[in-house]
Write a structure and sequence with these properties.
The complex is a heterodimer of chains A (733) and B (221). With 733 residues, chain A is mainly β. Chain A has three domains: 272 residues, Beta Barrel (Porin), CATH 2.40.160.40; 130 residues, GMP Synthetase, Chain A, domain 3 (2-Layer Sandwich), CATH 3.30.300; 289 residues, Porin, CATH 2.40.160. In chain A, the strands form five sheets. Chain A has a 13-stranded antiparallel beta sheet. Chain A has a twelve-stranded antiparallel barrel with strand order 1-2-3-4-5-6-7-9-10-13-14-15. In chain A, strand 17, helix 5 and strand 18 form a beta-alpha-beta unit. With 221 residues, chain B is α+β, with helices and mostly antiparallel strands. In chain B, 25% of the residues lie in helices and 46% in strands. The longest helix of chain B has 21 residues. Classes of the chains: A mainly beta (733), B alpha+beta (221). At the A-B interface, helix 1, strand 22, strand 23, helix 10 and strand 36 of A face helix 1, strand 1, strand 2, helix 2 and strand 4 of B. Strand 22 of chain A pairs antiparallel with strand 1 of chain B. Chain A: Keywords: Signal.
Chain lengths: 733, 221
Amino acid sequence: MRAHSLLTRRLLASTVPVALLLGLGAQPAHTDPLIGNVLNSYGLPGGVDTPTAEMLPDGTLGGTVSYTDRARRHNVVFQLHPRLTTALRYSRVEGINDHNNLGHIWDRSFDLRFQFIDEQGWRPAVSVGLQDFLGTGVYSGEYIVATKTITPNIRASIGIGWGTLAGKPRTIDTEDNGGKPNVDEWFSGSAKPFGSITWQVNDKLSLVAEYSHDRYLARYLRPNGTIDDVRQGDDEPDSKFNFGAYYTFNPSYQVGLYTLGGDTFGAQFSFALNPRNAPFPSGLEKGPAPVRPRPAPSADPDGWSGAWSADPTAQPAIQTALGKALKDEGQILESMALSSNRAEVRIRNTRYIQQAEAVGRTARLMTRALPPSVETLVITSNSEGMATSSVVLRRSDVERLENTEASRIAEAAQLVDAEPRPDGLVTTPDLFPRFRWKLAPYLELGVFDPQDPLRYELGAELKASYEIMPGLILSGTVRQRALGTMKQRGPGIPGQRGEHYTPEEYVSNPDYEYFNGVPRVRSDTRMYTGSDSPTIPELTLAWYAQPTRAVYTRVTVGLLERAYGGVSGEVLWKPANSPLAFGAEVNRVRKRDFEDVFGFRDYEVTTGHVSAYYEFAEGFTAQLDVGKYLAGDKGATFTLTREFANGWRVGAYATKTDLSDEEFGEGSFDKGITISIPVSWATGTPSRDRAGTTLRSLSRDGGAKVHVNGRLYDKVRDAQSVKLYQGWGSFWR
Amino acid sequence: MITSRIHHAALSALLIAGLAACGNDDTGNATNPLLIAAKAAGGTVAQMRNEKAEPAAPKRTPEQMAAEALRVNPAPLVMVGFESLGRTQVMAMTGQNGAMRTFMAPSEEALILRDGMVVGTRGLGNDLSVAEPGTEALIRAGRPGSAKRVMRYYNGDGLERPLSFDCTVGPGPKAGVVVESCEGHGTSFQNNYMAQGGHLPVSRQWLGPKLGYVTIQTLRP
């Protein structure tokens, strides 16, 4: 994962996008964090089991499966910041029995590592880490570790560990709901040293030796007050020395073989994707039509005089020709205003991830289509009929700066709020109504169920939308399952852990739809799965509007999601040049029937939130929602998302409401991570398609929201300052 | 009973697999993350297939290609050989902005030249966004000297990234050839130009770490 030439590394180097726009070269002098080569069995840079101070290249998203007869660990790792590594783990820990009585448990855990000292001269890099720190878990422990490069190929690490890393597992209270950081336990109890040496034999092969105090024990506090030590696997490792060999067969993939104490053997596979490492960094889309400079005034006196604008046939002819050229670029010319010296086009971008690329291509096509007297070019980006921003360019700047450094045209361009209904705007005829459809296979996966760790369903999905006019859209999805292991099942029976209601039992008694007085709004979500007949996950009529500058509204009516139907209304204030936005959403919904696609159940609720959004530097976006959730509970959700110019998005959220930990149940509060990767990043072909998933901790009833498609914030932002300038490097692409 | 169920399942699996996505909706769909891997792999397979399929087509010599292009296309033409892609093609001018000319192949890949000097590429997947050769005046004049050359690239994360090189210009081993030797970021490259009265009708220039060298020959100025 380090095997890049110096040159490629320079291209991959992280840079603040704003600095790029302000003319680069002058990067602040800073040393880079120490980057690791080997991922350990917990999925972070390290030795075999033990951690090192190393990081991964900024933005890296990776996964590891590590297998021994003591545990099988599935790790997802994300380098959130150059100095902060985060990891989410779902492990099968052998030898431990719980209510499921399987001889193993499935355990989720979450890690953080922060490198607070860089390696420099004689000084090693030093990191501090928290392992399995949300609640007390089998792997809970903390460490401080230093890593030093001894020779270019040998690195040594030495550290001290607490908890599991010291062979002193923390006591797990079987009655506790977990899920919350136990700050008072951190760095407590006796500490033990650990260390590792990594020898990078060549570009591909690394050998690791380490000294570890992990005794593969778990300690439980039983309800009767006794404390049990339970072995993970058959017995303790024979020795404290572990050895491993890791082979990197391309910068993205690594396989490893290792032994713990000489008696346990393990194998692991890991991959790491970096958003900066696209197979086709510039995309494979065809070259743009070049700028056509205007002829000299003497060569076209009529065109330069502006007299053409008096001809009523001029605009329709120009609009038709420009609309056709834009269509080839995946841009819909929705409307246009034209005068003798100014032209405004309103486009909908259906192809490029970066709006700047759509704007740049549109600007060039305008130079080819418009008479010479038109000097001001206004490119307004439309999203669902809402005008989200206008880029104002001087045509002479476009001619002068074609194919120069992108920051020069950025300096010459102006970004302003779009006028919702300007004078003289002519709608392009025959675009609406617009009917779109798509028939494709779907694959749905269910994870995190100890009794059935991986469930799937495969089938066909028909999606269709009928856009009556810009912003008024009827859309729906029909699914037909073909095969899969997903089955309909009721929620867990209170007091009988591991047992679940059958679907028939669950619907037989309305009282079952409440647990501890809390309505089951999400914990019975699997009642909606496993149907052999067609299902309609969504069928809605949505209306988007823009009452005034920078204010956007949405009303959605219908079957909003698989489990709820009703009405959803939203309003958002987001000026084109503001990193700050405010919004509000109110939903009146009713729970849908488990089987009858158009039927409803009795539960009805009004939910709503006020939201504040802020876009920080380097692609970080924060969102705070405060309001009432599906079960009637009140609270707040905080979401932090990191977004790259190429469209990669990784985020985490947590919701805490006024439900007590007991009412909420296992996990104590709702939390999860979302990952979204643009398909174009992997294939190089331009498209706005995305692939992604949300990993949430557990389906619980507290802090649950209605999933309404088409929320305004994501509809509006693409063409606004932060995201537009983040992707501005593609203007001349 | 069981076999019929298996048959049923297998049949539906086949049906689903055969159900390549169809429709007219191309606007920002959500797909399963596993499809990203599948698509990436599919792309590689298609690429390999294309590479295999190519030799089957009757291969024409560069001379034949040049002769045909000169016959059918009245625009200025260049013959371009991408060494790393193993491909030689004729590209025709599709636009001119001052001294800057955009040449395109039928596949709409583009090469942007300023009187023979490479300014940028488009549509090749590892494109050069813009080159700013400080050495240009020296090369055209055939005068020895040194200057900086900045090459800007479209990066995988969507940003434009500059690489800066220190270059020296001097006479080449053959008369009439100017050599520009550049160094920086742990690499080096040599550009060769045939300079004639300030024009650069024939050259071999470095496009970038992935695309490598390109040879350019003016067929019709």
